[in-house]
Structure formats: structure tokens, C-alpha cells
Amino acid sequence: VRDPRTGTYRTMSLDGGLARPDWSQAGSASLEPSPEFPMMASSGLDPVTGAPTLVLGGPANPPRYEASLKVATVIVALDKSATGVNSKNHLTEVASQHLALMANVAAIYENQLGIRLLVQELILTPDSDDYDDIPYDDNGSTLEEFQEWVQRWRRAATYGQTVAIRFGDGLSGGIIGIAYQDALHTRDGVGVMKAGFGWALTCHEMAHVFGSSHSLGGIMNAQYTTEERSFFRDIEG
């Protein structure tokens, strides 16, 4: 069992009185909370240290905390280049990676902005002739192509998502992400990103859709790979 507070692993064994050679002899058992292993929420990555788990205590007033949150839903789509081969094990791995990425994005939005971000749908497009790719062009035209794809297949007026994002091809010239600004719950509520750049880029592009412009420093800094001051470079190395 992994202790989320320290990252260490401990081996657990059953009491001899609980072990039985056959299911017909099985009895009920009760699990009691241990003061040495309290139940605490985890927010994912610590943005300061990069540690895989930042353990938090529960809110002082859970009902009031829950009521204070604004809920936003996101559709996450991957094109063929981001999804990869059509095999069960590979698709499971890709889905797990992107759900973990979105969990870290959700932690940032909830802890810092009071927005509970929920993944409404994760769409994978296996690299197989059996599937049509999500269309793309180049940079701004790729964003327009995805906007039209969402309008056709996942229209916000029907599916109700707050925002839709896409990972994959169609960006060049040093551009790794692009999104419409201030476009929640509209046909323009979309963003596109290259795959493999982590949660910081996803937070950045989605924030444009939520209404944020660029800043000097911080997660909304416009630069990622240049010599300009960059929050991305500071926290990701």
C-alpha cells in the first residue's frame, strides 16, 4: 500500500483468523480507520516542487466549500497523431496519461480559481483506416477546423460542455497551443495544443477560453521556449 503523504510503500498482511482455504468458509470483516493513515485529498502535482502528490487537509466547512465552486465541463479530443496505434494496451495507457494530465489541470483550477473542472468526455482517434482523423490545417486554420468539427459532432448547445480541447497535429512555427479568448459555452469555446507538453500548457490555453489574456510571468506568460521569463521553464525545467 502506498502512503500518499510520504510516497513510501508498506506491506499489509491478513490476520490468520481472516484467511480461509475456501470461499464457502468466508465470513464478513470490518475495516476500521487507522489514525496512522488518515484519508486526505490529493491535488496532484505540487507546482512549486514538482512532487507527484500534494496532500491537503479537508476544507473547514465542506458544504460551504462545495457550494462555492463553479463547475466547468471539458471535452478532451486526441487526433491520430496524439492517440497512436489501435491496440487495447496502448489506448488504455494514452487514456490514463491524459486523464492524469487533466486531473492536475483540475487541481490548479479548483485550488486557485474555485472552478471544479470535470472531464465530460475523452475522445481517442486510433491511427487506423477504420477511423476518420480530426481534421487540421495549420495554426489558426487548425483552430477553425476543430471549431467546425466540434460544431458538427459535439455542438455545445446539445452536449452542454463548457470548453473543448484537442491534442495533436496542425501547429507549426514555434506555436504549441492556440485558443479563442473569452468564449465559454459558445461555438468558439475551443483550443488546440501539441501533445506532450504537460499540464501547464493545457492550463494556459484553457484559461484563454475562460477569458484570460497573456501576462508577464505566471502560467499565462506567452513564452515557452524562448529566453523570456517563463513560468513554464521555471517549474518544468
Automatic annotation (TrEMBL):
Region of interest (Disordered), residue spans: 1-33
Record SUPFAM superfamilies: Metalloproteases ('zincins'), catalytic domain
Single GO term (MF): metallopeptidase activity
InterPro entries (UniProt xref): MetalloPept_cat_dom_sf (IPR024079)
The protein's name in its UniProt record: Peptidase M12B domain-containing protein
Organism whose genome encodes this protein: marine metagenome
